[in-house]
Amino acid sequence: MKKIICVLGMAVVLGLSQAPAATARDYISIVGSSTVYPFSTTVAEHFGKTTPFKTPKVESTGSGGGFKLFCAGVGVQHPDITNASRAIKPSEKQTCAQNGVREIVQVKIGYDGIVLAQSKKVPAMHLSRRDIFLALAKEVPDPSGAEKTVPNPYKTWKDVNPQLPDVKIEVLGPPPTSGTRDAFLELAMQGGAKSFKWLKELKKKDKKLFKKIAHTLREDGAYIDAGENDNLIVQKLEANPNALGIFGFSYLDQNADKIQGAFVDGVEPTFENISAQKYPLSRPLFFYVKKAHVGTIPGIQEYIAEFTSEKAWGPEGYLADKGLIPLPDEERSKMREVARKLEVMPME
Amino acid sequence: MESHSGIAAVVKKTLNRRYRAERRFRRIGLAAVAVGLLFLAVLFTAIVSKGYTAFQQTHVLLDVYVDPDVVHVGNLDSADYQGLIKASLRELFPDVKGHRDKRNLYKLVSSGAGSILRQKVLEDTSLIGRRIQIWVPADDDVDMVIKGHVDRSLPESQRRLNNKSLAWVDALKEQGRLEKRWNLTFFTAGDSREPELAGIWGATVGSFYTLLITLSLSFPLGTAAAVYLEEFAPRNRWTDLLEVNINNLAAVPSIVFGLLGLAVFLNFFGLPRSSPLVGGLVLTLMTLPTIIIAGRAALQSVPPSIRDAALAVGASKMQAVFHHVLPLALPGMLTGTIIGMARALGETAPLLMVGMVAFIVDIPRGFTDAATALPVQIFLWADSPERAFVEKTSAAIMVLLGFLILMNGAAVFLRNRYERRW
Lengths: 348, 422
Known about the structure:
The structure holds 2 protein chains of 2 kinds. Chain A is of the alpha/beta class. Chain A folds into 2 domains: 25-111 and 283-341, Periplasmic binding protein-like II (D-Maltodextrin-Binding Protein, domain 2); 113-282, Periplasmic binding protein-like II (D-Maltodextrin-Binding Protein, domain 2, 3-Layer(aba) Sandwich). Chain A has helices at 2-17, 37-50, 63-70, 90-98, 129-136, 157-160, 179-193, 197-205, 207-215, 230-239, 249-254, 271-275, 300-307, 310-313, 318-321, 329-341; strands at 29-32, 57-59, 81-84, 104-119, 126-127, 139-141, 149-151, 171-173, 223-225, 244-248, 259-261, 263-264, 282-290. In chain A, strands 1, 2, 3, 4, 8, 9, 10, 11 and 13 form a 9-stranded mixed sheet that branches. A two-stranded parallel ribbon of chain A has the order 5-12. In chain A, strand 6 (139-141) and strand 7 (149-151) form a beta hairpin. The N and C termini of chain A lie far apart (68 Å). Chain B has 3 domains: 2-52; 55-190, no CATH class; 201-418, MetI-like (MetI-like fold, Orthogonal Bundle). Chain B is built from 16 helices and 4 strands. Chain B has helices spanning 2-51, 81-92, 99-106, 113-123, 140-146, 163-174, 185-188, 201-232, 237-251, 254-268, 276-300, 304-312, 317-345, 349-353, 374-382, 389-418, and strands at residues 56-65, 131-137, 178-182, 358-359. Chain B has a 3-stranded antiparallel sheet. The longest helix of chain B has 50 residues, at 2-51. Chain B starts with a helix and ends with a helix. Classes of the chains: A alpha/beta, B mainly alpha. Chains A and B meet through helix 1, helix 2, strand 2 and helix 11 of A and helix 8, helix 13, strand 4 and helix 16 of B. Chain B: It is a multi-pass membrane protein.
């Protein structure tokens, strides 16, 4: 017994003898969107391998969580870069400014497509945004044509649109905390809602009510909150050919042998279509740099240079292999200039 | 006599029924155990059958000419080693023309092949100017095809590798240049976005540092608290309240400790985010109640006669506790500690809040370096889009289970070896 205590004690002493010497951080700290995470980590790894700097640390906190940490202040305990699958909101800018984070560089890195995918065992669906809205909103415009909403009566896709197959509506999607869900609501649901004239007019008159109609998903089991794990959705789709799943394009790209993307407004979600901005459900991706940290934390400028180099974010670059859809050539070179010169975005 | 035989008759009448009831109960109990074992077996088969392939990795044998024009003494560190790898691939397939095809050809081997060559050259500079044979990891897409995780009969557009790439893979295989080898990288490397280069060593070291902090804080604190509460503290309303609180804390969801850690250790004390130091502190808070409760139970199981005997021969209260009671209770306390540690090893939720759920490539070298932990690594891989991470996830689960079995086995061993029954 005494021996065991001795060994334990020694382990403790050994452990504590290399006591923590709290020093300035010598690696870049990155937080933010889980959609940008695969790209950001790939760049970080290349950066760590090809430069004398340490490999940056990348946390996947979601876009909103990222801004919260990023805007908390200036200093080594706060992150240097945050990734986002949407642009920074005015309220977040305000928080940033209040905490002394006044100089922020915004870099747009490319696009991500949001796909509605299904198993390969059935023919691909052809949906319009209007179909998606009618199938998934909690309250839909009265089918009789009156300008009011009724609780969603549709059970099958055929009820929504006679040209669609006669299968039960069953859509697996991300939870409310996800940036993918935000983008889906904004692009697909709002887009579909706007196809009704009176709802479009409502948007001008009463934006809040419009948003409530367009952004509230069904809770009767047609929309299933499948959690943040997109691989799980892929597995469920394989098992249930009638179900559709909502996730980012990179998952479709990596699992093209098992699942296919539904056509939206007649456009197939392919690399080319999203890049050409023909596919309606695509969103820009960003990262934001805290300029005050450049010079204090080693390697920030070099990391940005790596990210914005052609071998990373170009059409032939290694990020394209990971599923990032690059910016058009002109925009890319413009963004590269912004990034190289660390041009601060306006805070108002 | 009369009444005696009457009882016998009654017993005889109900005896069979009672036997039946007993047999039934035994069968139900056995069935319960069997169902449990069945689930365990399903879990293990699912994990092992998915994960065992990850311990092997497809490698490609390349003849690389270490060109002295590319690598020389002046640029050993930064030379274009990947370029040399590409050149050797071009030599193997001289017919490949065109930009697109060449790019696909280069994609057959891992993007980490260059750094393996670099390591080799750095170790032995005499290789410069020579032609060497070297095994480098194949790309994860090739690996998946070789391991049969991809259906080759699918149309070209639905596969990650096109027909030409598959033909090259087959050609390499025929020449004996493609081989599944023991995947050492998996045990020695940190995380990576390329599945063929990803390993669990970084996470293991992170877990080790975190648990060291947890152990070195929670064991002494927990033991001291248990000894005081059990042996010295007066029984009154305050200690009752304390006891209720400790029992409560043991049942609090672990994420709450993470939030506490975020508020106290990171925001108030300003300790470094994502470090094993903070992770260990948070897990200490989480395991303390478990250890205290186990410790008190162990102390309670020491019979009062031991204390009385010590006091009777003139030992002070403290001597009685430290010379006699504590040594007898220690095996039980250690068992509790090990079980608490095993729980801490499997925990992710509180680490999420203090920033240990992160992509970290470099192996942590101290308590304040950014680090991640084994279960976190599993969580991160499970969420990665690349197909090859599926088997990596299962393999990492197997490693974690191995550690857990080891720790719980140690607890059982300690109990059997040192526990005294009274």
